[in-house]
Design brief:
single chain; porphyrin biosynthesis; alpha/beta; chloroplast; EC 2.5.1.61; chlorophyll biosynthesis; 5-stranded mixed sheet; transferase; D-Maltodextrin-Binding Protein, domain 2; Double Stranded RNA Binding Domain; 11 helices
């Protein structure tokens, strides 16, 4: 997983990355229905078609969304009222190259966004860390489900921690964010590209392709596979990806009915934390090869605590900053933006040029 976002050509700018937070209401809602037909059975209209990737984790998140919709709207609890539509993305099909080499994280959302805009699905369920900084014009992201644990899990069959791995040990990870933080603290280790879904990566680890790997604890928990974690890394040792552990649900910006359904599921604390982190990312996201990490959360005093990181892929240069302020949308967006500008200035223009 690469902790960066790349604004690709097919994602036209729609204001700010926080456009996901404040949907505008419009008249004449567009509500389309799909027809699911079984042989010999009467056609049944689906009120909502959920678009998702086909990986086990993506499907688990789509099913979680479906269950929450059924629980909050009685008409959606009817049989076949909600249909799950699996969409194959470019990121799922190209597994032998680093994401940074083939276009960044938008590769996990483009085909789903296209299906949404074309009316083939009504809502799209995404891992928020896969969502590019700017949403495609005509879509909006009014809902975040409650955030899971943001930490990373260390998985290894021979050691209990990164510190215990002998020099030269190979760690598999597709994430430049993880790679840079590992090499910063443990320069004697080696990190190689390691892609595939959770099950594939665990299988490769058991087959001895690498000595260890890191996975998001949130994904393991949603798959009921948390027992595979050898250890859970603190956010001090491994700062998470922007929006790690958060699920986002998008719809068309003129579809008032879907926005009404989704507003009932929105978790406000998560929405604000994600908006803060994505604003930080938007300031720094100059290209697809920049390790970036961030975490915003409500502290014990009820305020927002924020920590952000920018680094070189080899871990030789690491820039960090922290912020604290009121847990409110405007304050948190400004906090993320200000932190991003600080680290951009600290790194200097030569830093970003070197990553091209």
């Amino acid at each position: 997983m690469v902790s960066l976002r790349c604004t690709t050509a097919h994602h036209s700018l729609l204001g700010s990355p926080t456009c996901l937070a404040r949907p505008r209401r419009r008249a004449c809602p567009v509500v389309r229905a799909a027809v699911a037909v079984e042989a010999g059975a009467q056609a049944k209209v689906s009120l909502i078609r959920i678009g998702t990737r086909g990986s086990p984790l993506a499907l688990a998140q789509a099913h979680e969304t479906r269950e929450k919709l059924k629980a909050t709207h009685s008409e959606l609890a009817e049989e076949r009222a909600i249909e799950i539509v699996i969409i194959k993305t470019t990121g799922d099909m190209i597994l032998d190259k680093p994401l940074a080499d083939i276009g960044g994280k938008g590769l996990f959302t483009k085909e789903i966004d296209d299906a949404l805009l074309q009316g083939r699905i009504d809502i799209a369920v995404h891992s928020m860390k896969d969502v590019p900084t700017y949403l495609p014009e005509g879509t909006i992201l009014p809902c975040n489900l409650p955030r899971e644990d943001v930490r990373d899990a260390f998985i290894c069959l021979t050691a209990n921690s990164l510190a215990e791995l002998p020099a030269g040990s190979v760690i598999g990870s597709a994430s430049l964010r993880r790679q840079s933080q590992i090499l910063y603290r443990y320069p004697s280790l080696k990190v190689v590209n390691f892609r595939g879904n959770v099950q594939t990566r665990l299988r490769k680890l058991k087959e001895g392709d690498v000595s260890a790997t890191l996975l998001a604890l949130a994904g393991l928990r949603r798959l009921n596979m948390a027992e595979n974690a050898t250890a859970v890394l603190s956010v001090e040792e491994m700062l998470p990806a922007v929006a790690q552990g958060a699920i986002g649900i998008a719809c068309r910006s003129n579809d008032d009915k879907m926005m009404e359904y989704l507003s009932a599921l929105n978790h406000e604390d998560t929405r604000l934390a994600v908006a803060c982190e994505r604003e930080f990312l938007a300031v720094l996201d100059g290209n697809c090869r920049t390790p970036i990490a961030a975490y915003a959360y409500r502290d014990n005093d009820g305020n927002c605590s924020f920590r952000g990181l920018l680094s070189s892929p080899d871990g030789s240069k690491v820039f960090e900053t922290t912020r604290s302020g009121p847990y409110s949308f405007d304050d948190m967006v400004e906090m993320g933006k200000d932190a991003g500008h600080e680290l951009k200035a600290k790194a200097g223009p030569g830093f970003f040029d070197s990553l091209q």
